[in-house]
Amino acid sequence: MASDKKLNSLTDEELIKVFQDENTIEAYEILVKRFKDPLMNFVYRFLGDRDVTTDIVQDTMIKFYLNKDSYQSIAKFSTWIYTIAGNLAKNELKRRKRRVVLSISNDDPDDITLQIEDKNFIAPDRAADNSIKSEMVQRALLKVKPIYRELVILRDIDGFTYEEISGMTNLSLGTVKSRINRGRAHLQKLLKNIY
Amino acid sequence: MNEEKFTDDNEFSELKKLLKEIPKITAPDNFEFNLMTRIQNKNFEIKSEKKKSFFSWSLTPAIAFAATVFVAFFVLSDGDELGDNPWQSPPQLIENQLSELDVNQPLSNGVEQSSNTEKNNEESNLVTHSKSSVQKQFPFDAKGSFSLDEDIHTNARQNFSSGEAHLANSSNENLSSFDGFFLREVKKLPKADSLNKKDSTSNNYQK
What we know:
The structure holds two protein chains of two kinds. By secondary structure, chain A is mainly alpha-helical.
């Protein structure tokens, strides 16, 4: 119990160090507790499917357990685990791309956009309700190209810095900023009825 | 200059506020339990990757091409067999037997001329027997036309003298004798006396 309290007071990086060095499962469990909800939120906003999100976050934790030694203390633990989750989520999206009805963008053949019918879009006068608003935001997010969507979620929902996002996505700082800006602009256009 | 524009977060302040406000998604209650169970059972199978690998395997172009060729091969080969028009090609059984006959014929002639031994005679007898049996069994000319009416008439004439008739196109072994149509005398069956009396009384009554 005392050791748990002691572990709880450690930072993420200290905890993974304990897990790496001593193979302490309690350290791993604390990290899982800390990151399961933020990762669920990130993956759900990216994919829009709760069941698949749960599977992906579980897989992320399994990968973390199996590859704990590949983490290097030069990076933040959150950056590392978000990278794993992001890669799994992107793989899932690619897999879906072949099955779900999709349209390929004319500008960039690598980018895809999920086709969600506009007729299901809720009228602005009913948008006062928070849950409806939340759903509208989610639908709008899914309409944004994945390469922009991921960065907007990381920045504006999960609150990472541009530098951290650059580290996670292996993109230059300029690319990160420009993509976030484009994603926001597209999102703003889609959500103009809300505010 | 662009860099400055991109870093200007104030432009989207309302949007950012909206995104911050949306409710957070939480993990299911049994998330940790399921995870620790998987770890304890050493069930490290990555579900999302497994799905992906299966899907990509099924879509591998080389495998898809090979499967198509494989299926097409069987479909086309079956199609050839089915595509043969039975009316345009001679029946294989007859053709094989006739060709066998052609091969055997010169051999039998040569044997008859050259040797006088019993063995050779037996062979030649066998060959001629097979020839006649084949000819009897299949009176048709493989390359020419065949008149069924003529065949029936000639058979009928030949058999008329012998007093027998045969079914057309029947082999020697399965000859079925046919005596022809005859008028048969119907013998009066002996009537019972009571019936004869009945007849006579009815005749008298009519009179």
